[in-house]
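Task: complex structure prediction.
Instruction: return structure tokens for all chains below.
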Amino acid sequence: MLVNQIAVFLENRSGRIAEFAKVLKNANINIQAMSIADTEEYGILRAITDNNALAIETLRANGFNTAATDLLGFEVPDKPGEMHRVLSLLDEAKINIGYLYSFSRTSKKSAIILIKVDDNDKTEKLLTDNGINLVSKDII
Amino acid sequence: MYYNQKLECLTADEKRELQSQRLVALVSKVYNNVPYYRAKMQAAGVSTSDIKSIDDIVKLPFTTKQDLRDNYPFGMFAVPKSEIIRVHASSGTTGKLTVVGYTKNDINVWAECCARALVAAGADINSTVHVAYGYGLFTGGLGMHYGGELMGATVVPVSSGNTARQIMLMKDFQADIICCTPSYAIYLADEMAKQGFTPEDFNLKAGIFGAEPWTNEMRDEIEAKLKIKAYDIYGLSEISGPGVAAECAYQTGSHIYDDHFYPEIVGEDTLMPVPYGEKGELVFTTLTKEGIPLIRYRTRDITMLDNSPCPCGRTGLRISRIKGRSDDMLIIRGVNIFPSQIESVLMSSDKRISPHYHINIDRINNLDIMEIEIELDSSVAFDEIKTIEEVKRKLAADIASAIGVYANIKLVSCGSIARSEGKAKRVTDKRVL
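Output:
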């Protein structure tokens, strides 16, 4: 059970992220989570929206290089030490993390950790065995 | 000083006679030995008996780089393979190289022409010639090497690269003549200064610079920084290599060694010969070449011919500095590059990129820098930076292996490179040449 996200290639020029947001606004798409990795030359924007398929179609039509990718999502209690618990487990199991982003949901007093790893199956088993719940796109 | 005073200072009549004899013999030889030339002459309705003197050269069809490509690799050689003792190659317009073959006599003629250039720049048997052109398929290194040996100087075959070692050897061996590209000469001078050397630490007196276009401003800079006299040399591998033409001490153009290489300037559009002093495309006929004789070969270099007397006494016609190209060839760090070579790599290297690209060239710290912007295919995006970096590394390696020059790769969004309606403008060259 994987969470689907969109990845957008952004050249480093001013206003580019705002253009991205405007395209989604005009298509009435809601951004639920977002993170940006940047280098000197370009950035990668990763986001989860309420309609990834439409987001990709609309962004591509507006000249954004966009693709769907999958990653694992886990729900943990929104309290100190939870991130450390997850990362320690991954570290002990020698699972490599490509990137990670997280957000808390104050209404549910929980936090979602989205994580790109080199071995989805192993990670999923490890975390569920340790009582950490996997989330799907719908729950987000 | 001359290396071969008789041939470098022929009178007009003597030269005409020599060129005519050589052209008649050449045409008869290629007609009989090279099916390509025979077919081309027949198609143009020219027979060997139509060629009686050098004036008849205009009756002959042109030869182009495309002809060399069509006959790749050895189809235009005019002698049996047993007589070829060396090959060199330069960039072709696509994946294939432009190949030339030399007989023993061709190597000797070429060496003599380079020797003439060295002597014209003041070299003698006591000179030490530091050859920092690349050695290999590129003609620069071996051309000047053989020329230096022939005229009796001491040759240091250091080849290109490893600037720190170049500087050490130049200082320790006290070379008085250096041969390299003009941009590398400036780079070397700057590195010497950085290491705390002054021109007085060296024994350099003259430099022979070529393989890329340069300006009088660059000449001034090289001469000021290295305290030498800087000479221009012109050549191309198809004709022989360096030493097709070179400057004398008066530096009012490069004297063509036109006892071997007969020059014409033709209008860029008309392809008809133009008068002396008028700009056009430089065309050469290799009057004495045996391995791969070329008849009216279109160099694509834009320049003009000067037949006014030169105080040095040499009578070889002079070409002015190369003013540009009539095709899209680029010269980066002395290496000839066609955008089409890069395009072929992009078409085959990685399905995730599109064939839309733009080349930016600049000269930073006196080194040519090439950046290639490449559009990602419209459906492609990456969620990890390391994947993008892998794509860039692989493209850079594939392009370097195809063109011989490393380029910085910049991936850009699809649609961000301007589409043009006519001929695509693939290159922005910011170098001042």
